[in-house]
Amino acid sequence: MKKKKNRPQKDARNPITKDRSQTANSKSSTQQLTPGFILRAVIPGGLMYQMPHPPGVPAVGHPRSAHLYTLKKAPVLKDLPRAELDALIESLAATYTRAAYHEFRFMELRRELDMRRANMPGEILFDSLVEFVHFELQAFAGASRMLLDELVYLIARRHGVPVNRAKRKPWETSDLIQKPRTADCDVPEIRLLASKSSWFGTLNAYRNSFFHHGWRHGGGHFSPDDIRSAAASPASNGLLVPDKSSLGSRSKPFEWTWGQRTTVDDIAKEIRTGTEDLLTNLLENLWSMPPPHPGTAPLEERPNVLIVLAKPAFVETDGAIFLPVFSSRELGLSFHHFSTHPNLELADVPVSSAVIGQKAVTVSLSGIEKNSISKSIEFIDIVLDPNPNNDWTHVETTAHARIPLRKLLDSDTVHPVSLPVHNLDRAWVWRSAMARTWST
Fold it and tell me: What is the pLDDT along the chain (440 residues), one digit of tens a residue?
């Protein structure tokens, strides 16, 4: 968005006076600028960073989630309305990621138990960490079970079942797998699900108990090969879970049995193995959707944060382009050149050192090449709190950065530009009014 002003050509070279002037910086970098932030890529209108996650959160997304996203282009799903398909696949991939995250945390905590036990001088009677291992197993089972419900709905819709019918009997997951099916449900995908009935029975039994009927476990923990009597006692060994056969009929903890010495590790392994086998057969064999290419960048170098930069409105005169930035909302609102424009909004932008290594306001000029800019204009001037005269032949400002326009336009990617500032935590710019929405 630009605002056209006219001014005498003879004053075009240097109309700016200021208290201090800063040199513009528009380069990209892969070096680490701020601790924990590594700028990996510059894209039109944005930046891609690699930032470490807190302990316990995987560094990158799971490859299976990326595989599920490819279903947006699956030929077998092409008849679904685009808005519905996008929403279903995004939810499906997120549910899988949730399951994978809780399994990841389960495995981390499970390993931690073994490490804590390694140097103990005696038998662990109680360890407060044990219950958190169970919490993660429960969350893992819950997300894995929800994944099946989402898949069943998607399968129903893929076979032309109306939305309202796809949400209820006979398209309920448990019935489809454990009971005789009606003719309209007897499709290849449901037959595949039914062939996994033993795995489903384990997942469903423990998920139902976790979420609907209560839970109970011991306070200590032992290695899997420990033969002492306490290791076989559910009251002593918190890694034991009740027998699957005792979890039916909405039974409560006092009714359960523990004779099979099933462990949390057994349940987690069975859930994961069955889920992956199901998804591989469904996606690759029935729906002919192979996994996407994993990419060439090492996992430890892949960006995981996408930053969208503000694209500010600018003022164009006969010989210059000015990009106003403001140190306060009040100053921005009082800038009458933009404040009355119906298609512009005042947006705050952070002041960050993560681009050029010092505090700066960074904005995008991506798309500026689509404007009909006079060839006589050589620079873009970023001006902080500009106070121009009527024809912009004289502009007072508190900070200023000058960008060579032709060099910017001649590059393959229009890089972001930065205005160094020292005493601000955020700034404001006028930009085209925008809001991201989902299609419905």
Answer: 555 454 333 344 467 765 544 444 444 344 445 567 788 988 888 999 998 888 888 877 899 999 999 999 999 999 999 999 999 999 999 999 999 999 999 999 999 999 999 989 999 999 999 999 999 999 999 999 999 999 999 999 999 999 999 999 999 999 999 999 999 999 999 999 999 999 999 999 999 999 999 999 999 999 999 999 999 999 999 999 999 999 999 999 999 999 999 999 999 999 999 999 999 999 999 999 999 998 888 877 889 999 999 999 999 988 889 999 999 999 999 999 999 999 999 999 999 988 888 999 999 988 887 888 888 899 999 999 999 998 898 999 999 999 998 888 777 667 789 999 989 999 999 998 766 667 65
CA distance 346 to 312: 9
214 closest CA partner among 206, 203, 204 = 206
For residue 195, count other CB atoms closer than 10 A to its CB: 14
10 Å Cβ neighbour count for 61? Answer: 16
For 363, the token pair is 């904005």
Q: In sequence order, what are the beta bridge partners of 361?
A: 351, 419
Alpha carbons 407 and 386: distance in angstroms, whole number: 25
- Global confidence as pTM: 0.86
**CA 431, CA 440: separation in Å to the nearest integer?**
26
CA atoms within 13 A on the CB side of 123: 13
